Amino acid sequence: MSYWNNLKKSVIPPVVFLVSAFWICACDDHRINQGKPQIEVSPETVNFKTLNIGDQDLQVLTIKNIGNAALQIESVSLTGDPVFRLEKWDADDFSDISFPDGVPQPGGLNSSLRELTISFSPDVNGEYSASVVIVSNDEDDETVTVPLVGICSI
């Protein structure tokens, strides 16, 4: 009987402690076992070609989810000079898109990226700028702002 009492004193308290510690950690913070979405946008600045009046240049902004949970794009907007325009969200006309839009985590069957096509169509000589503003559920980068730059020289 003394062997069993000694065993209970030496083994059971650490086991109970470990189980209790695991239960407290697992229940205390619900985010421990959940993934997080993470947005990555490239390029960081969109530089359009130098154009003549009446010409148009299209550039693509790539929005990736590099996290381990679904990324929810809440809104995409354009601020600045009206010579820039949001044209396509993947293959769809941007004007036909309703937000929020989900971007799956990498490694699944669905693509973990979206492509935003932006046009630059100046009608007067000068330097132009605007910004694309993307709001998502990424806790670290909830709002991402991407500068757009274009020049019309002739």
Lay out the secondary structure.
Layout: H1 2-28, E1 39-42, E2 46-51, E3 57-65, E4 71-80, E5 84-89, E6 92-93, E7 101-103, E8 113-120, E9 126-136, E10 143-152
Parallel strand pairs: 2-10
Antiparallel strand pairs: 1-3, 3-8, 4-7, 4-9, 5-6, 5-8, 9-10
Task: Give a brief description.
This protein is an alpha+beta fold. It has one helix at 2-28, and strands spanning 39-42, 46-51, 57-65, 71-80, 84-89, 92-93, 101-103, 113-120, 126-136, 143-152.
Radius of gyration, Cα only, in angstroms?
26 Å
Helix content: 10-25%
Which structural class fits the helix and strand makeup?
A: alpha+beta
Spell out the helices and strands N to C: HEEEEEEEEEE
Which consecutive residue ranges, at least 5 long each, have pLDDT under 50?
A: 17-30
Molecular shape: elongated
Q: Give the strand tally.
A: 10
Strand order of the largest sheet: 1-3-8-5-6
- Strand proportion: 35-45%
Number of helices: 1
Averaged pLDDT, please? 86
Largest sheet: 5 strands, antiparallel
Distance between the termini: 99 Å
Please describe what this structure looks like.
The protein contains one helix and ten strands. With 154 residues, it is of the alpha+beta class. Strands 1-3-8-5-6 form a five-stranded antiparallel β-sheet, with no helix packed on it. A hairpin with a 6-residue loop joins strand 9 and strand 10. The longest helix has 27 residues, at 2-28. It is elongated, with a radius of gyration of 26 Å. It starts with a helix and ends with a strand. Residues 17-30 have low confidence and may be disordered.
